[in-house]
Write a structure and sequence with these properties.
- With 169 residues, the chain is an all-alpha fold.
- It has a domain of 113 residues.
- It contains 2 helices and no strands.
- It is rod-shaped.
- Keywords: Membrane, Transmembrane, Transmembrane helix.
- It comes from Dreissena polymorpha.
Length: 169
C-alpha cells in the first residue's frame, strides 16, 4: 500500500517536473522574442537619432537656360509660394515630432527592459522550483528504495521461534 502511494507520488513528481520544464522553455522563447524586439527598437531609435538633425534643404532646381520674361517668373514665384508655405509647417511638424517619437521609443525600450527583467526573475524562480522538484524526486526515489529494501529484508527474514527448555532440578 505504502509502495503504491510512493510510486504515485513519484509519478506526480515527474509530471510536475515536465510541466516546469515546459514552462521554462516557454519563458526562454518569450525572452528571446523580447530581446529581438528590443534590438529592433534600438535600431529604430538609432535611425531616428540619425534623422534628427534637420535634413539639408534640397538643392534649388536649376534655372532654365533661356531667360524667361519677368512677368512669367513672377507668376511662377507666386505659384510656388503657397506650396512653400504649405511645406514649411509640415517640415516644422516633422522636426517637432521626431524628438517626440524618439521619446516614445525610449519609453517603449524602458518598458521592454523592465519586462525582460521580470521574465528573468520568473526564469530564476522556475529554475529554483525545478531544483526543488529534482530534490524531492531524489528523496522520493530514496524512500522508495528504502521501502523496497525493507520489504526484501522482511521476506528474507524468517521468524525463528526458539524454544527455551526449562531445566527442572
Amino acid at each position: 500500500m505504502l509502495l503504491l502511494l510512493l510510486l504515485l507520488l513519484l509519478l506526480l513528481q515527474l509530471l510536475l517536473l515536465l510541466l516546469l520544464l515546459l514552462l521554462l522553455l516557454l519563458l526562454l522563447l518569450l525572452l528571446l522574442l523580447l530581446l529581438l524586439l528590443l534590438l529592433l527598437l534600438l535600431l529604430l531609435v538609432l535611425l531616428l537619432l540619425v534623422l534628427l538633425p534637420p535634413p539639408p534643404p534640397p538643392p534649388p532646381p536649376p534655372p532654365p537656360p533661356p531667360p524667361p520674361p519677368p512677368p512669367r517668373l513672377l507668376l511662377l514665384l507666386l505659384l510656388l509660394l503657397p506650396l512653400l508655405l504649405l511645406l514649411l509647417p509640415l517640415l516644422l511638424l516633422l522636426l517637432l515630432l521626431l524628438p517626440l517619437l524618439l521619446l516614445l521609443l525610449l519609453l517603449l525600450l524602458l518598458l521592454l527592459l523592465l519586462l525582460l527583467l521580470l521574465l528573468l526573475l520568473l526564469l530564476l524562480l522556475l529554475l529554483l522550483l525545478l531544483l526543488l522538484q529534482l530534490l524531492l524526486l531524489l528523496l522520493l526515489l530514496l524512500l522508495l528504495l528504502l521501502l523496497l529494501l525493507l520489504l526484501q529484508l522482511h521476506h528474507h527474514h524468517q521468524h525463528h521461534h526458539h524454544h527455551h527448555h526449562h531445566h527442572s532440578q
